[in-house]
């Protein structure tokens, strides 16, 4: 009976936001695995006692990314971690988009502004809407959409982020998202699992520190051959060609109508099994195979 830890976050007194976690745990138990959900930062857990630690809904990591990466690296020394610790370190910092771009993957053009970098209103876009968000973030945390007329407000956000030690990303807002949405292609066990489409997350005028709905109006989606090709290019560009148990590639249409990679989610992407219940058997089987492989 393989022992599998589903690494999650501690929701405290609130219900967990991970709708898939109990369903996945039950499916693994039904398949004769000893599966338990454990907060990643639980200091009393013996991670070496598991055959596999599967990173799932560790959705509070972006507030303390270095602590989370250090946990992943420690965990990987005593058991099998999925995805691997090297992938976790690379993918928690959204500057990975620069690596993808260097490999020829079409990504959203991105400018990075670290604490100490000089920036003025004149240095922000004056001819199109743009987005400011942190390189370490999840669920649109500290992300906002601005018009050129709101550059002074964007500067205040940048100052706040820099004061907290956060590096900012400045990207053009892809207006096609308001029409065609953002498509998420989910891979598991090395193959396409399913795909979904969501509508725009960043509404105009929403404050950067306001809560956002991470996946508004989510619906099943059948990916086009072009979408699948771009997603596979992004996965092939991950450094050192690691074995990825799971991955999600978020795509949107650029201003020129061509596909762009918004994000490559290799750490703790939502699986959306509640929307795609038919995918549960494949996910369960792939997890059991990974657990059987050992460290």
Overview of the structural elements:
The protein is α+β, with helices and mostly antiparallel strands and 295 residues long. 27% of the residues lie in helices and 23% in strands. It has helices spanning 21-30, 65-76, 85-92, 96-102, 151-163, 177-180, 225-236, 280-293; strands spanning 3-8, 34-39, 52-55, 80-82, 111-113, 130-134, 144-146, 168-172, 182-188, 191-198, 219-220, 246-253, 259-265. The strands form 3 sheets. It has a 5-stranded antiparallel sheet with strand order 11-10-9-12-13. Strands 2-1-3-4 form a 4-stranded parallel sheet, sandwiched between helices. A 4-stranded antiparallel sheet has the order 5-8-6-7, covered by helices on one side. Strand 3 (52-55), helix 2 and strand 4 (80-82) form a beta-alpha-beta unit. Helix 2 (65-76) packs antiparallel against helix 3 (85-92). The protein is globular, with a radius of gyration of 19 Å. The two termini are 16 Å apart. The relative contact order is 0.17.
Principal-axis shape: globular
Secondary-structure-derived class: alpha+beta
Please indicate the percent range of residues in DSSP E strands (runs of 2 or more): 15-25%
Question: Quick one: how many beta strands?
Answer: 13
Mean pLDDT: 93
- Radius of gyration based on Cα positions: 19 Å
Low-confidence stretches: none
Count of alpha/pi helices: 8
Oligomeric grouping of the chains: single chain
Proportion of helical residues: 25-40%
Largest sheet: 5 strands, antiparallel
List the helices and strands and how they pair.
Layout: E1 3-8, H1 21-30, E2 34-39, E3 52-55, H2 65-76, E4 80-82, H3 85-92, H4 96-102, E5 111-113, E6 130-134, E7 144-146, H5 151-163, E8 168-172, H6 177-180, E9 182-188, E10 191-198, E11 219-220, H7 225-236, E12 246-253, E13 259-265, H8 280-293
Parallel strand pairs: 1-2, 1-3, 3-4
Antiparallel strand pairs: 5-8, 6-7, 6-8, 9-10, 9-12, 10-11, 12-13
